[in-house]
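Repro case for the chain-ordering regression, as requested:
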Amino acid sequence: MATAKTTSGPGGSIAGAARDAILAGVVALGIFGPLVGLKTEQNMQNELVITTRWGLVAIIVGIVIAGRFLLTTTIWPAMTRNKLRDKPPATAGEVAFRARLARWFAPTGLVFLFIYPALMVYFLGFQGSLKWVDNFGIQILIYVMLGWGLNIVVGLAGLLDLGYVAFYAVGAYSYALLATHFGLSFWLLLPMAGILAAMWGIMLGFPVLRLRGDYLAIVTLAFGEIIRLVLINFRELTNGSAGISSIPKITFFGIYSFDVSAPNNFAKVWGLAMSSAYYKIFLYYLILLLALLTAFVTLRLRKLPVGRAWEALREDEIACRSLGINTTNTKLTAFALGAMFGGFAGSFFAARQGFVSPESFTFMESAVIVAIVVLGGMGSMIGVALAAVAMIGGTELLRELDFLKAVFGEGFDPDQFRMLIFGLAMVLVMIWKPRGFVSAREPTVFLTERKSISSSLVKEGHG
Amino acid sequence: MSSVLSSEQTPRPWTADPVLTVEHVQMRFGGLVAVNDLSFEVGRGDITALIGPNGAGKTTVFNCITGFYKPTQGMLLLKHAAGDTFLLERMPDFRISAKAKVARTFQNIRLFSGMTLLENLLVAQHNRLMLASGMTILGVLGMPSYKRAEKESIETAKFWLDKTGLTARADDPAGDLPYGAQRRLEIARAMCTGPELLCLDEPAAGLNPRESAELNTLLLDIRQMGKTSILLIEHDMSVVMEISDHVVVLEYGVKISDGTPSEVRNDPRVIAAYLGVDDEEVEKVEEQLDELTEGATP
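-- result from build under test --
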């Protein structure tokens, strides 16, 4: 990078780069001048008045000019040089280091996940840990679980499902309705929510499995919207957009309750100070175990004929049929299993929130889950988990950036720029790693030596 | 079997106990008749070659046999050595492979390129393994019966990897193999399904002479084992004439010759189809010749 500054880019000299940067600045001025610079507001007489924000426009244009200049003079030349230069083959040390990293990453991560709440409590106290266990821990783990569930459908079987949130909703509403109306326990309803979601998965699967690629994606997207609209309009059952509230909390296997008024309240029984932190920590471990169950089942299934058939289906469906594989059933199992884990996560979500409404199951959620799977690398468990941490943890972190108010003024809310940053980050990652964080495929079985398969050979499925 | 006999009273051993009987099969795509009134037999344990100029309808016949197309008319009767019979035209494609035990390869190779060779061969044994894993349930619980079945499947895979000379590359992705090896792997994969009838769509296409010779050895080896009959489409006459017991020639969707390789080689209609005709016959086949110059390649 240091030497890159001295050489000019492919476009020519420093002066050329400056000209180019100024041109970009003019374009930016043309776009952002009217969009950002002019703002209409209603005054007290209900009249629209134009206020101007030229300062902000100047900042934006300045960023564009500087960024463009930096790109043409430094970053692009460096990138082309990197591409031109033959990469030296990895030394034995590097290979060994990578292998060690791959081997130790998962166990270390697991240990960290198990001691995470304890660490938080130790450093921040029970009340202080709430935010970190709940907003970060539980929230991220829900998406890890959803990502792993969808990974079966999209990553392994190669069926692009844009309506995954439908199964999440089915799970959530199954628990919410059955628990509030019949007072059934979470531990009974958890498997039931999974089974119901799986049934919906099969019901959706049957008609759409003859479709492929884009068509499948559109139909599943529509299915997700249908479920949401039914939840809004079927008022008698679902209470419409008002949602279902006061959903019972999960009990500690029926032994302890986390309701403040209950006689067997966890804190009361153990004589601890009242705090919602115990419940959150309990929920954290519960969703951790549920997510690990998803991972365990997926890893097991990959090594079984059904898992191999999923991957074979992603590679070449016609060849699968020529080998006597019933592709319809194979696709259905992938759909149903993915849906089942979505249902588990949904019932957990309902119990954790204590409130569900159709608002929680918009297309945005499906898009985020698909983004997690794609960003993580289709089919890779660790990649998907990392992507969930980056996407969900990242957006949660934005809430923490209050100091930016000092820069951009009181009205600045970084959380509102979530989607912008999110999209930008995705574009960058897709340029840097087009097949996701972890793109190599691990073979499920080997004769003499396990070798990772380069992502360039692995197909992404065609629906 | 390949002894030269006079063409008129040749015995036709493949009619005695055919593994596949094709009767009056017609395949029509809208107004185009790709295969018309085709009947032939594939003898049990034989290597039968289906040849003909480009566009003659050979691959269409294959697609009908393996269920990728449903013939508009006609019957395809498959008979196992054990006596079970199957009407292929009534079965969905995956059941033809699973139940009737007809395996196939493709003209444009269709391997699972992102999976290792071994995985490719295990996917081919899907149905057996699926049963052994108790439709997945026993397998998820880690039952030893599944472990045993998987070990057996790996042994089968190893056997075919040895036969095709690919053992050293068992753990490499299939997409990394050179072309000839991919062709061999596709045959190994088809053989892993334990077929009664193996349909090979141009197995020698794109192979160099040495690879072609290796292929011949492999196919003769498969015939030697006696369990699998082979039906192959081929343009490479060195393969066809050397190893096949029986040749069926198609042209424009119609059978024009059917017999031993030597018979077919001397059949004037076959010669006409491939090379054109002698001068004295020109008048007789003038119309035919006009058509041939468009599509025929030797």
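Ordering looks correct now. Residues 268 and 277 of chain B are 8 Å apart (CA to CA).
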